[in-house]
Design brief:
Elements lengths: L4 H16 L14 H7 L5 E6 L4 H12 L3 E7 L1 H11 L8 E3 L3 H17 L2
Parallel strand pairs: 1-2, 2-3
């Protein structure tokens, strides 16, 4: 072991332990990490939201859950057929949400930024 690396390893040990401990262990399966946030926001109006490239289970489910909780009014930006296939695979109905077609992540990001910029310019 190179000189000085013992100190580095001991400094990293608490970090490694913190990362290895799953904060959701022991919670019921339906425990939602953001439950307090949702409770605080539930009486506020939904925010129009550009959701760029939600092509993972977590991203798409999170957007739908936030919409169902009344937190956001999402526009899904990405490959429409892929989003629809993913939604079907994980049992989500995304038919209520507008989809803006983007063929890759970079284009999805560009469209999301443009959507936000247009909204920011409105009086």
């Amino acid at each position: 072991m190179p000189a000085g690396s013992e100190h580095l390893m001991s400094d990293l040990a608490p970090l490694a332990e913190a990362v290895a401990v799953d904060p959701l262990v022991g919670h019921p399966p339906d425990f939602h990490v953001f439950q307090q946030f949702i409770e605080r926001c539930k009486d506020l109006p939904a925010i129009t939201t550009a959701v760029a490239w939600p092509l993972s289970d977590v991203a798409l489910k999170g957007a739908v859950e936030a919409a169902q909780a009344g937190l956001i009014e999402p526009t899904l930006i990405g490959d429409g057929p892929q989003m629809k296939a993913l939604a079907a695979k994980i049992g989500l109905d995304i038919s209520a949400y507008p989809i803006l077609q983007a063929d890759d992540e970079a284009r999805a990001a560009e469209l999301a930024v443009a959507m936000c910029a247009r909204a920011a310019r409105r009086p």
